[in-house]
UniProtKB/TrEMBL annotation:
Gene3D superfamilies: NAD(P)-binding Rossmann-like Domain. It comes from the Eukaryota. Residues 7-112 form the CoA-binding domain. InterPro entries: CoA-bd (IPR003781), NAD(P)-bd_dom_sf (IPR036291). This is CoA-binding domain-containing protein. It comes from Eeniella nana.
């Protein structure tokens, strides 16, 4: 199974870290892509307003994982649309609460990670080789592949 298909496996809930209210920003475009494809998604951004496209915004990925109670979609995949330092901080906060094991797959949109982010994720079992980490591919371009059954 390709990493993209694994990311979109059945019964998955998605979090978009770096979701934005501004339509011209990629954080908004990625969130809208999930909404347009009728996927269960939660926006994450500490600086955003309380709702984006009617969805409640959570201030951190750690908070989002603590609040995740979607019995119909118990698996979790996360898209990052943040600068690498923010991506690393979010992943570290999740590691601090021992919740990285709750995430099945990570997708770092272009520009959202660097070697520090990848190395940290690899310490917790995420890697391109295992197919549970995607780096450098854009969901707006390659995402359709994962939705094809």
């Amino acid at each position: 199974m390709s990493a993209i298909k694994q990311f979109f496996s059945d019964k998955t809930h998605y979090f978009v870290v770096g979701a934005s209210t501004q339509p011209e920003k990629y954080g908004n475009k990625v969130l809208k892509w999930y909404i347009d494809h009728e996927l269960p998604v939660t926006p994450v951004n500490p600086n955003a307003e309380t709702k984006i496209y009617g969805l409640p915004v959570l201030e951190s990925l750690a908070e989002a994982l603590k609040r995740h109670f979607d019995k119909d979609h118990p698996k979790i995949s996360v898209s990052f649309v943040t600068p690498p330092k923010v991506s690393l901080r979010e992943i570290q906060m999740v590691a601090d609460i021992s919740a990285l094991t709750e995430i099945q797959s990570l997708w770092f949109q272009p520009g959202s990670c660097d070697d520090d982010v990848i190395n940290f994720c690899e310490c917790f079992g995420f890697s391109k080789e295992k197919g549970n980490l995607i780096d450098g591919e854009c969901i707006l371009v390659e995402g359709e592949e994962g939705l094809m059954k």
